[in-house]
Design brief:
The structure is a single chain. By secondary structure, the chain is α+β, with helices and mostly antiparallel strands. Helices cover 16% and strands 35% of the residues. The strands form three sheets. A six-stranded mixed beta sheet has the order 1-10-9-11-7-8, with helices on one face. Strands 3-2-6 form a three-stranded antiparallel beta sheet, with helices on one face. The chain has a two-stranded antiparallel ribbon with strand order 4-5. It is elongated, with a radius of gyration of 19 Å.
Length: 172
């Protein structure tokens, strides 16, 4: 059963931190509280004075707010800056009848058409109107239908949804 999903605006979602990401954290005027932090496979990280924090799925802004709140106990009015140095935890997969199947990093919001473009487009014998996006949510996998021909003609654009980390685009 194929389901059509509604796209989420990039501004609404923001980049969500994933295990494997490398973050650069700095606290203004606190030389000892600056450096790179790796997000562990369990989705957490440890930071001086703030302790262990579950960060998987949080945006950078949410993590900045959380760190600021935790550091406030020790530093008056801390100014925390966080950047994603390496977004290696967020990946999508494109496979099947595309020119360059494989794993692709999800550095920014990416929709299905952009993912197909990264994979070098479809091959001549691809069934472009039977493409499926496989997504795991709540431990269950679902298939979301994608008809390339409709989107190419400017119709049913809602099916050109933003991909999430772990999504697989299958081109039969």
């Amino acid at each position: 059963m194929l389901v059509v999903a509604t796209p989420i605006c990039a501004e609404e979602s923001g980049y969500q931190i994933q295990p494997g990401d490398v973050l650069t954290v700095s606290v203004w005027k606190e030389q000892e509280l600056q450096g790179e932090v790796l997000v562990r496979p369990d989705g957490g990280l440890s930071f001086a004075l703030a302790g262990d924090i579950a960060v998987e799925g949080k945006t950078v802004t949410e993590l900045q707010d959380l760190l600021t709140e935790r550091l406030r106990k020790y530093i008056p009015d801390p100014v925390v800056t966080i950047t994603v140095k390496v977004a290696s935890g967020s990946r999508i997969y494109v496979l099947g009848k595309v020119n360059h199947p494989g794993e692709y990093s999800l550095y920014r919001p990416l929709d299905v058409m952009q993912a197909l473009s990264l994979a070098g487009g479809t091959t001549p014998f691809a069934a472009v109107n039977d493409i499926a996006i496989l997504r795991r949510e709540g431990g269950k996998q679902k298939a979301i239908g994608f008809r390339y021909g409709d989107v190419e003609k400017g119709r049913a654009l809602e099916q050109n949804l933003l991909l999430k980390s772990g999504d697989t685009v299958v081109v039969p």
